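This part of the workshop introduces the protein records we will be handling. Getting from the letters to the tokens is the skill we practise here. An example says more than a description, so a record of this kind follows:
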Amino acid sequence: MAKTVQEAKISTPAARKKLPEGMHWRGIAADLHLGYRKGARGGRWLARWYVGDQKYKQEIIGTADDAVKADGVDCLTFEQAKAAAARLLTQRRLDAAAAEAGPVATVRAAVDAYLIVRDSRAAGQSGRPQEKSDARQRMTKHVMGAEIADIKLHNLKERDLLSWRDGLPSELAASTVRRLINDFKAALNAEAKRHREHLPAETVIVIKNGLTAPEDSSPVARDDQALSDADVRRIVDAAHRVDADGGWEGDLARMVTVLAATGARFSQVVRMKVVDVQTAQSRLMIPTSRKGKGAKASSHIAFRVGEDVIAALRPAIAGRRGADPLLLRWRHKQIKGTGTTPPRWERDERGPWRRAAEMARPWHDITKAAGLPADVVPYALRHSSIVRQLRRGLPVRLVAALHDTSAAMVEAHYSAAIVDALDDLAAGAVIPLISTGGEKVIPLRSGT
């Protein structure tokens, strides 16, 4: 049972000035008291709350505004101290409830659990138990190594998330930041769902507001990232030269050729099988992406290509089973050197491509050989394919379907190409309306 408090007059500096030195209390709730400890040069505010079994806990919450004007943070008025005491009680009860529920949920624990799920998914999709997801490197570097990782989930505030976002390196690409934020949001939401009985009701709102897209994140125009048809041909030609010079045995050239011909994502192309090359129809069957939620209407997208692309792929399908991965590459292992010979790399096994990062080094050589700027990325082949089809007058919905995206996304990012295509179509409906005066007018005969 909570003790009876002898009420002290502590609400104003004048009233507190009349009190003797020592501890003075005033009840502000059934089991919460606001205390004022007066010293020789002023006083301090304390909060005391009942924890059961005739026991109390107390903490200092700030300095009283006896001699210094209150700032609402460290120096508090009576009313500010009352509010601070109430907030402190709420926080300590949340701490106690979280502790009673078992291991306290933290941001670090949320990210750990999320990465385990992502790694398991990546291993299942690739068939390699040791496979790690692309999210692990990003989140380990930018979340697990940040101060926010050690915050308890029930203590998480919007300002914590906003401060974390503001602290991200400025050189990070916008796409990387988006992926990082989306992964972080998914990790926190999953942990909040698991521990919802012991978390404040507003935790989900805190996560949503703290990790929402910034107001200035309007769609970035991608028309200017598309390459001309001539530049795409230069890239494919350069890929064949780099392939030959580097002893890739056609693996690199085939990868670049398929990316350029279809505009598909790397993650889709690497999942293609031998059976996905339909030579009679000059068609490639592209696996749908794993982006988005819910089941896709179809597992593959039929994409027509030229006979030159089919010819380039014939060596990869000759004599192989339909279920075999279409695009392969050699992997190497390091052989330790001896006392007189240095370490060396030699071929180990040939298997499917795994990550887009494997394209980084050869792609640099390809753009250099093609005479293109170093900032041209492989994804430019996708932009180029979309823009090429739009400018040929294909309907937006068809272009979106062929590239496994939405019509809304195409309209948002490739508006210039759409305008050009529509303008060309509209130009075909223009007819001359004003006579030039050179025509001979023949009057009609009357019916007599």
